Amino acid sequence: MSTASEDLRQIWQRQALDAPRINLTYLRHQLHRLRRRTQVRNGIGYISAAVAIIWMVLVGWDSISSRPITSFGLALWALAILFLSWQRHRREAISPPAEQLGTLDALQLYRQELARQRDTRRGRWWLPPIIPGMVVLPVGLALESSKTWLATAGLAAWFILAVVLAIYRNEREARGIQDEIDALDSMNNQGP
Questions:
Q1: H/E run at residue 154
Q2: Which of 168, 174, 171, 29 is nearest to 115 (CA)?
Q3: Which of 44, 89, 131, 192 has minimal Cβ neighbours within 10 Å of its Cβ?
């Protein structure tokens, strides 16, 4: 036998050792767990959005004629919440994996879904739709109600604090997801 064919034979025999050492059942469990976590997270978001929109309609309904700017600000918020709920579903929903996936396919699919979740949390795609409501609502309250400018400034500060906390939470979640992606990548890059 020639040395070239022996080298190929050694590479072929070592091939099984080069594959990631991960159980297919475990990968399927992780994919199911990620899908379930996303469904729960989105479900809580949908319920929160529905409650917020109902509250805005109830609060804003009586003041449509007396406080049109405030009502318009509430309507902008409601539209932003509907849009963000739709976008979140579009960006985060995970379809169930095919049952015939092999280990490497499942590993690649799991990594892709994690990367998609990470990118959704890192992006600021949710910020532009809420800015109009964040501006119009405090201005409307300041101009149309007997509230003081201090109360209006407090509302604006609360909006800013909520945005900063949301960015911080999303970044923290994205870092956790990135750590899991890095662990998968390091497992894939381990040599014999």
A1: helix 149-188
A2: 174
A3: 192
